[in-house]
Amino acid sequence: MKEYLEKSMTFAEYIKLIDDLLLDGKTTGENQSEAMFGYGKLNRQRMHRLEKTVKINESLREKARKIENRQIWLIITEGWCGDAAQNIPIIEKIAAASDNIETRYVLRDSNLDLMDAYLTNNARSIPKLIALDAETWQEIGTWGPRPQAAMDLFVEMRALGLEKPLLMENIQRWYLADKNQALQREFEDLFDKWSKAKESAATR
Q1: Based on CB atoms within 10 Å of each CB, which residue in 77, 116, 124, 190 is the most buried?
Q2: In percent, how much of the chain has pLDDT > 70?
Q3: Exposed/middle/buried for 76, CB within 10 Å: 0-12, 13-18, 19+?
Q4: Taking the model in full, what pTM does it have?
Q5: Before 145, cis peptide (omega within 30)?
Q6: pLDDT value at residue 182
Q7: What is the Cα 174 distance to its own chain's centre?
Q8: From the centroid of its chain, how far is CA 2?
C-alpha cells in the first residue's frame, strides 16, 4: 500500500488536477471523448455545489470527533465519475470533522492493480474508499462505490435491462432525493463497526 500512498494526492491536489484538465477540454483517464469531457464538467459542477451546501449530521460529527487512532482514507476515483462527484464532497466533510482522519486520492485508470484488489461484483466501480491505520498501514475497512440503497436500485434497474444513460440518470435522481443522508448513516455504522473491531483486536 505504501507505493500508492506515496503517489497519492490531497483533496486540493485532486480538485486542481480536475480543474486544470477541464480548462484544456479534458478529464482524467485515457478516454478523452467529448462525452467523457462532458461528464467531467458536469460532475465538477456537482462537486462544487455539494462542497458549499453539505452539512454533516451532528451524530455523525460526534462519532468522527471520537476517533482516537490516526487513519488514512485512500480513495480510488476519477474526475468523470458521477458517483464520485456525489459522494466525495460528503466524505471530505466527514473526514474534516476528525483531527485523526486524512484523505488521499489515486486515479483508478492509473492504478488498475490496486483497483482490481477492490472490485465490486467483479466490476471496477468507483469511488472506493480504503481506510488504513496510519501507523501500521493495516486495512481497517472499506466503503464504496455508492450507498447500499443506491446499489440495490442500480442492480434492480440493470436486471430490468435499462440502458446505461437512463440508469445513471435515475441514480442521480436518487442522490438528489436522498440529500446524502444514506451515506451519512452508513458512515455512522462504519465508525461503530471499525471501533468495535479495534477494541476486539486490542483484547486478543
Answers
A1: 77
A2: 97
A3: buried
A4: 0.95
A5: yes
A6: 98
A7: 17
A8: 20
Q: What residues does 101 pair with on adjacent strands?
A: 71
Q: Which three cell numbers stand for residue 22?
A: 477541464
C-beta separation of 131 from 101 below 8 A: no
User: Domain-by-domain residue ranges, the chain?
Assistant: 2-145
Length of the chain: 204
Closest C-alpha to 158, from 123, 115, 133, 118: 123
Whole-angstrom CA distances from 121 to 73, 77, 134, 152 are 22, 17, 28, 12
- Residue 171 and residue 176: Cα distance in Å, rounded? 9
Of 80, 145, 87, 77, the residue nearest 111 (C-alpha) = 77
Q: What is the DSSP letter of 109?
A: G
| Residue 131 DSSP symbol | E
Number of H helices, E strands in the chain: 9, 4
- Low-confidence stretches of the chain (pLDDT beneath 50): none
C-alpha cell at 179: 440529500
Q: What angle do CA 129, 69, 185 make, to 5 degrees?
A: 50
